[in-house]
Design goal:
Layout (H helix, E strand, L loop, with lengths): L4 H6 L7 E4 L3 E5 L7 E7 L14 H17 L7 E4 L15 E5 L9
Antiparallel strand pairs: 1-2, 2-3, 3-5, 4-5
The chain binds adenosine monophosphate.
């Protein structure tokens, strides 16, 4: 049995506020937004993180990044700017072990990295 939260969201078993969806990718609003726009972009297929993602095709990974850019456009962040963040592993405080990109925008970010 797959207990992954984001797999359940991708399968529609747990509701989400969807922003974008295609056959491989889902984007939905973060439940605890850290900025006026905070959207998570995930592959529908379970991939635990960036190391696991080495087993994925270049096309699948590119699709994830293209979806993040599409979300930024849909959320009107292209002019103002936005940040794309992906946490991997304990030191990065990844809390959901299903690969995801955070698309953050709608306010000026502080700092450049951490
Ligand atoms: P990370 O800490 O980088 O693994 O990011 C996981 C993100 O998932 C956090 O920003 C959480 O707020 C978010 N999150 C957890 N549960 C849900 C949920 N049910 N719907 C939307 N976002 C969620």
């Amino acid at each position: 049995m797959n207990d992954c939260l984001f797999c359940k969201i991708a399968a529609g078993e747990i509701p989400s506020d969807k922003v974008y969806e295609d056959e491989d990718v889902l984007a939905f609003r973060d439940i605890a937004p850290q900025a006026p726009v905070h959207v998570l972009v995930i592959p529908k297929k379970h991939v635990s993180g960036w190391y696991d993602a080495q087993g994925e095709s270049d096309a699948a990974l590119a699709k994830l990044m293209r979806a993040a850019a599409a979300v930024a456009k849909m959320e009107n962040l292209v002019e103002s700017g936005f940040r794309v963040v992906s946490n991997c592993g304990p030191d990065a405080q990844q809390s959901v072990l299903h690969l995801h990109l955070h698309v953050l925008g709608g306010r000026a970010m502080s700092g450049t990295m951490v």
